[in-house]
Specification:
heterodimer, A: about 260 residues, alpha/beta, Spore Coat Polysaccharide Biosynthesis Protein SpsA, Chain A, 2 domains, seven-stranded mixed sheet, four-stranded mixed sheet, 9 helices, B: about 260 residues, 7 helices
Chain lengths: ~260, ~260
């Protein structure tokens, strides 16, 4: 049963209006407390207007309120405050399982010093269904690192952590509740496509008509056929089609910005 | 012939329209010679921006009223009007001076059995007039005799209906539909919710065609059959976004009917 672990752990997450997700996410950390008696939970909240901060406090988290300065910066600053030997970085729409907690505990105990981080697989749920294909699985992310060894790279969306030393992948996945509704997808699409414009390379900008016309079809084909998305049924189809439209919107925004020179 | 003076009410409903309302109100340059009495009524659904302030500054009577749907709000606005004629506008529309003159000319000579006029709309998308894609002429019944018409009860794209005859005006107004792709996507989310109410009320049954071929057909219709390709890249964007719009509407139907089971 729950065995005390000699090392200490800090969990960091950043939030903005996440009251819907916070109880599930922080609730799933409860088994960690049994293993790491001085578990530290740091929540970096960017002035949420909902009950995120008070909910987080009720789960024993330390809430640090600060303005939003980009995902990676926000995460890195929070990691810098962590005191544990290990740091686990999670998002509010994610959830640990008891089996994953057990495995984490064991692996942290036996990990040789050259191992500086662990990759965590993620089960992505779309409208309540686990999407096993479409390229959405296993979606491993480096999330558990030795303090001082890992940091987030500074790219506008989908930032990841990096460490210098060795990494291992855990067997047990966590749950990732990506989208609860089509409406939520559309809201995120609008925001992410703005952000991803900043990442498009200059030589791609010149070829925008090409990307606008072809890349939605390529995206759909890659996800639905090459990555077996059809095995996820209609959920898979909707995921792949939304990704294709997402691509279209991204390049339409690129055209708006680079060709029309309109700054909305 | 001697001008027969009459009166005109212009009614506009708003919600967070500070970007447009000024341009709209400034385009209302009717002369006293024809419309001895004029009033501009803005019914604002508690905007959080400067809409009400700008409207008041430009001489409109501003009423605040909680939002209960398009046609409900529009009909309430109509009920506040006192003019013999009522022109119903949206904040993102603008009259041209040619249209203003035409309205004045036609109002003098209108036969008594005519209760309304249709007005064409030039729709602008990201700054360009879209002449195809099915977006033109998009004529709307907008100028009516008071007491002779009301808005019908469709969740989106609700329209006026009148009892008597109608005529069409020659000059179009300007309609600034979307200023940015981002705005299109925001409105799409809202409109697809509203059309969803509509199609569910009509007991439309979901079937696989809606998610797969219907959006493709929408694209083909907009870009090829309705010659969207003649609008250049703007036409392609409008057609692609229309297909996406269709997809979203039906994906939401699928979400409600199939996945969540009602």
């Amino acid at each position: 049963m729950a065995k005390k672990n000699p090392s200490s752990l800090s969990v960091v997450l950043i939030t903005l209006n996440e009251e819907k997700n916070i109880p599930r996410c922080l609730g799933s950390l409860a088994p960690l407390r049994k293993i790491f008696p001085n578990l530290e939970i740091l929540v970096g909240d960017s002035h949420s207007q909902d009950r995120t901060a008070s909910l987080a406090r009720s789960f024993g988290a330390k809430v640090i309120v600060r303005p939003w300065e980009g995902y990676a910066k926000q995460k890195n600053d929070l990691i810098a405050l962590a005191k544990g030997d290990w740091v686990l970085s999670i998002d509010a729409d994610e959830e640990l399982t008891p089996a994953l907690v057990q495995e984490m505990e064991r692996m942290m105990r036996v990990a040789p010093p050259e191992v500086e981080g662990f990759l965590l697989k993620r089960k992505a749920f779309f409208l309540g269904k686990w999407i096993k294909h479409c390229g959405w699985w296993p979606d491993s992310q480096l999330r558990l690192v030795r303090r001082g060894k890992g940091s987030f790279t500074l790219t506008p969306v989908h930032e990841g952590m990096v460490v210098r030393g060795g990494v291992l992948e855990l067997e047990e996945p966590m749950n990732h509740y990506t989208y609860d509704s089509i409406q939520q997808y559309l809201k995120k699409l609008n925001r992410y496509s703005d952000l991803s414009l900043l990442k498009i390379k200059p030589k791609k900008i010149k070829l925008w008509p090409f990307y606008l016309v072809l890349s939605p079809w390529i995206t759909f084909f890659r996800m639905f056929v090459a990555k077996w998305g059809f095995l996820d049924g209609w959920h898979g189809f909707v995921v792949c089609a939304l990704s294709a439209y997402h691509d279209f919107c991204k390049y339409a925004k690129l055209w708006e910005k680079e060709v029309l020179k309109r700054n909305p | 012939m001697a001008a027969k003076a009459t009166s005109l009410s212009i009614v506009i409903i708003t919600l967070n329209e500070e970007a447009h309302i000024g341009k709209c109100l400034k385009s209302l340059t009717f002369t006293k010679k024809i419309f001895q009495k004029q009033e501009v009524i803005v019914v604002d659904a508690q905007s959080r921006d400067r809409t009400a302030l700008i409207a008041r500054k430009l001489g409109a009577k501003v009423y605040r009223r909680a939002w209960k749907g398009f046609s409900d709000q529009k009909n309430w606005a109509l009920s506040q009007a006192k003019g013999e004629w009522i022109l119903s506008l949206d904040a993102d529309e603008e009259l041209t001076s040619e249209l203003v003159h035409e309205i004045e000319r036609r109002i003098i000579t209108v036969p008594p059995n005519v209760d309304g006029f249709w007005i064409k709309r030039k729709a602008f998308f990201l700054g360009k007039w879209i002449r195809h894609c099915g977006w033109w002429p998009d004529a709307q019944l907008r100028l009516i005799r008071r007491g002779r018409g009301a808005f019908t009860n469709e969740p989106v794209h609700e329209g006026l209906e009148v009892k008597g005859e109608t005529l069409a005006l020659d000059h179009p107004m300007n309609h600034y539909t979307y200023d940015s792709i981002r705005q299109y996507l925001e409105k799409m989310d809202l409109y697809s919710d509203l059309t969803l109410l509509d199609i569910r009320a009509k007991k439309v049954k979901y079937w696989w065609y809606y998610l797969t071929l219907a959006p493709v057909m929408t694209f083909v219709r907009t870009y090829f059959s309705r010659l969207g390709l003649l609008d250049g890249w703007h036409g392609l964007m409008v057609s692609g976004l229309s297909a996406f719009h269709d997809f979203c509407k039906y994906a939401k139907l699928w979400e409600k009917e199939v996945w969540r089971n009602g």
